[in-house]
Every structure is written in C-alpha cells, then in structure tokens.
Write a structure and sequence with these properties.
Shape: globular
Largest sheet: 9 strands, mixed
Helix content: 25-40%
Distance between the termini: 20 Å
Number of helices: 9
Structural class: alpha/beta
CATH class: Alpha Beta
CATH superfamily: Ribokinase
Radius of gyration: 18 Å
Order of helices and strands: EEEHEHEEEHEHEEEHEHHEEEHH
Strand content: 25-35%
Strand order of the largest sheet: 5-4-1-8-9-12-13-14-15
Length: about 290
Amino acid sequence: MKITAIGTVVKDIIHHFDGSISQSLGGLTYTIRALLSLLHEEDTIIPVSYAGEDVYERIIELYSGQAQVGTEGFLYISRPNNAVELSYMNEAERQERSLYPFPEIPFSLLQPFLTADVLLINMISGWDISLDTLRQIRQNFKGLISIDIHSLALGREENGLRYLRPIEAGGWIENCDIIQANERELEALGGNPGKPEIFLRDTCFKDEKIFNLTRAYLGSSTYYFKDHKIKRFDANPPAEFKVIDPTGCGDAFVAGFVLDYFKSRDIKQAARAANRIAAYTGTFKGLPGPINAN
C-alpha cells in the first residue's frame, strides 16, 4: 500500500491550558507519525509539503532513517517555515496564530506523487492546495481521496490571528471520498452540529461518501450511506488514555481511519481505530515519540 499525504509541516508553539509551553514540529508530522504506527512492513508514505529553510535539514534528518517514508515530497522553499502559535483555553478551545504562511502547492508539483493507492489531504494551513488543484487531482487520481477540512474553515488576519469563516462546501466534498471535520468546521461548511444529517443528505450523499464528525473528548460520529439511508456510528475514545494536549489528535484520527478503512472496508472498525490513535497522540505534549497505541 502506498499513501501520499499532502499538507503542511509547521513549527508548533503551544501554550497549554495548564500554563506550560512546548515547542515541536507539528502539522503533517502528526499524520506521518500516526501512519507509521499503523503501517505494515510493505507499506510506504510520501508526505508532500513545503519545508522552510530553517527546518528543511531537520525534517530530512528526521525521516531519512525511516524506510517507509519517502523524503522526496518535502519541497525546499527559501523562506522561514510556517509556524503556528496555539493558546489553549481548555481541552477543546484554543486561539491560533499563523506565522510565515506558505503559498499553496500547485498541481504541477503534486502530480509526480499521484501514483499511490490512497491520497490523504490535510488542510493544515487552509491554503495547502486550492479547490482548482483538488479538481485536477480528482481528474487524474482514481484511488481513495480523503480530506480533513481543518483550517480550510479558518481565515487569517494580518497579524496571523485565525478566525472561523464560512466556506463553500460543495467542491471540496464533491471531489473527495472521505471527509473529516469537527463541530466548528461543520458550522463553517453550513451544517448544524446538532442535526448534521440534513446537511449531509443535501451536500455529501449525492454520491457514496463517508463523513467523520470529530467531537473532541466525546469521540466521533461517522455518517455513511447504506440501504438508501444515512447511517450513523458513534465511537468513544478509550478510557485508559488521558489527553493532556489535544494538538494533533485530529491529524492522527484521519490517518488512523483512512488506513484502517482502506484495508478492512469496515467503517466501524476504522472509527474505533481512529479514536484510539487520536487519544494516544493526546497523551503527549507536542509531537509524540514512537507510537504504540495497540
């Protein structure tokens, strides 16, 4: 199995709700770490992200010893790396600032990496790729495409402060097979977190798709179409993991779900696996070391 993971490697500066501060690489690195913990020996990942001049060598060194990670998708750019400053008010609410933003990755740079079984798109900055680029990808890629809405739902002020903004859902959902959003992101898409079925019926399920609604410490709700009806499966995070830093949990969730679903085609099993790897990721401050969430 070959996975191409598109997104942004960022430098995280995290102000935790307990008053402590941690710094580490973040963004797409959380997805890579989660995938590595779940891959079989024959599986490979090619992450595709710009890498700024201040972190490029560090990123290459981090993954050059990982036989399952191809480093050719880290695209050197002669500018400071995108940094994200997160200030948590509680386990779920945070204020975010984006510093030194990257440009979007054009289709011409992505095309060489479309020889994969699964394409995992994580909109970590929100402008990682454009909608036109996604449409080009869909036209040229016949495998499974997953998207995490993530920061697509966030605008950016001049000082870097991020804010929730409405987005046009249609094109993004139309061109993907698996969609992930949290409750705030669902609102930005135009849905009601209390009654998502109406939005999903009108927007998502004109074709056969899967929609994962992540609910922080409450776990997730997975919606899918079966027997001409919208079905829902709720999964809870495992009680044995105590989340101390939710940064990266959503990135780990999408990795866990997509990988398990591709191999098993079992939606419920994939949702349980995704909750487990997401919860385990949250037991670390910053980017965790080697994961063993089994």
